[in-house]
Specification:
The protein is an alpha+beta fold and 456 residues long. Helix content is 28%, strand content 17%. It is globular, with a radius of gyration of 25 Å.
Length: 456
């Protein structure tokens, strides 16, 4: 009787794709796919379905992208596999890395980190000009990295920019866009509204990505998407002129030139032009921020922290602030040196391509373990060994294969052995009386490495 009462999930629903004559399985909530348990369906596009799933081994939620069967048939799959290999070599903070790409229970599954939302959803709400400019720089950097590796994205649109914590944007959907271009045999791959004119005619290039990127940035900054025939100025131009520096407006105009040869050659040159603009916001916006800073500049604590950042901000790679006292923090600190609050999880924007699922601090894709916390082993996404100028120490374990360490690492990312070296702060000889690591008694109240209170 008990066996008869056990509920059995219905089999996945089969959908027939009439264009290709193939069958695509639609997964259901709570259905298991290997080590993943489906939680809900996030999106369904012209080339794949995206699900939110729970990784029962790592205990985290991930995104599963399952391409349709006709996309992965015959020669198209070979091209797609090549693109997956290309993207796996891209190591950039603003490009979504692939955790895994493999067949799971007969389904080809692409696993990646789960974002908070997409830029398309974020644009449905009000967004400040300063935040939009910050997003634009990250988007340019992501596409520029792809172009430096000779990869054309072919499907730049808000849906393919994903938002993570601390206003981090990451570009995704490289493989799907490229295989779509080859599958359609140059008949105009891309998304209507964001595709460049020459790309719609089957002749995509790096300049096509520049045009699509200009459309996305223009919409984000003005609230309006330019439409064909893309005559200048488009709707929303008055808002741009009021809030942005004229050089930034000219940059957008050049990216949206109808003739491709008049645009930036690629996103790398577009990013360089953007970075040459010292202040993208107009003077009125800068003055408003300056007044706000002056009201807090009299505070002695603010002055002390400002002096600390000027002297040691670069040496310690300060990149975030304490959520309790707003003091400046580095990614490698285990506690706040200003208030002593434990920093079990990192809440800032990392310069590393991936993050540890335990402490959320940045890790490199070729590490086997997190160097900042004693977390479980990491799933390496590449067998390639990446060099980094931040490596300045050596693991004392003679059995360690790489033996390369970054400053203030607690554990070796290659052999998981606790680091014996007492890290010191460049330009300062003061040490903590408990852990012997470097501290700054002139600024800090607590040791950020072992949480001991610093006494005079």
């Amino acid at each position: 009787m008990d066996a008869a009462r056990v509920s059995v999930l219905p089999p996945p629903r089969a959908v027939v794709d009439m264009r290709a004559g193939s069958v695509t399985l639609m997964l259901r909530t709570r259905q298991r796919l290997g080590k993943y348990v489906i939680e809900r369906r996030l999106a369904e596009g012209g080339f794949a379905t995206v699900y939110q799933a729970r990784d029962t081994i790592e205990g985290i939620s991930v995104a599963l992208k399952i391409p349709y069967a006709h996309i992965l048939s015959g020669e198209a799959f070979r091209y797609f596999r090549q693109e997956v290999r290309l993207v796996s070599k891209l190591e950039h903070p603003n490009i979504l890395p692939l955790k895994n790409a493999d067949y799971v229970d007969g389904q080809f599954v692409i696993v990646s980190a789960l974002a908070e939302t997409s830029l398309d959803d974020r644009l449905q709400k009000r967004i400040s000009t300063a935040t939009a400019v910050h997003y634009a720089e990250q988007m340019l950097a992501a596409v520029a990295c792809a172009h430096e590796h000779r990869i054309i994205h072919c499907d730049i649109k808000p849906e393919n920019f994903l938002l993570f914590s601390e206003h981090r944007i990451r570009l995704t959907d490289f493989g799907i866009a490229r295989v779509a271009q080859r599958t359609l045999r140059g008949s105009g791959a891309g998304t209507v509204g964001y595709v460049a004119p020459e790309q719609a005619m089957g002749r995509p290039s790096f300049r096509s990505d520049v045009f699509s990127l200009g459309l996305v940035v223009y919409r984000m900054l003005s609230g309006h998407l330019p439409e064909w025939p893309y005559t200048w100025p488009p709707k929303g131009y008055d808002r741009l002129r009021e809030r942005l520096h004229p050089d930034l407006v000219d940059l957008l105009r050049k990216s949206l030139e109808l003739e491709s040869r008049k645009r930036f050659r690629d996103a790398t040159r577009m990013l360089a032009a953007f970075q040459r603009i010292k202040s993208p916001l107009r003077t009125t916006e800068r003055l408003r921020r300056t007044r706000k800073k002056k009201t807090t500049a009299k505070d002695w604590q603010h002055m002390r922290r400002h002096q600390f950042l000027r002297q040691y901000g670069k040496a310690l790679a300060i990149c975030t602030r304490c959520t309790f006292c707003d003091g400046p923090l580095s990614e490698c600190m285990q506690s706040c040196p200003w208030c002593g609050e434990a920093q079990k999880k990192f809440h800032g924007t990392s310069t590393f391509p991936q993050s540890c699922p335990r402490c959320l601090r940045g890790v490199k894709s070729d590490w086997h373990y997190c160097g900042w916390c004693y977390g479980a082993g990491l799933e390496t996404s590449s067998t390639r060994e990446y060099q980094d100028r931040r490596y300045s120490g050596r693991c004392k374990n003679v059995r360690c294969q790489r033996r390369q360490l970054m400053p203030f690492m607690k554990y070796c990312p290659w052999c998981h052995v606790r680091v014996q070296q007492a890290w010191q702060i460049p330009g300062n000889s003061q040490k903590c009386t408990r852990c012997s690591w470097g501290v700054l008694g002139a600024f800090w109240s607590y040791c950020p490495w072992c949480t001991k209170r610093i006494t005079d």
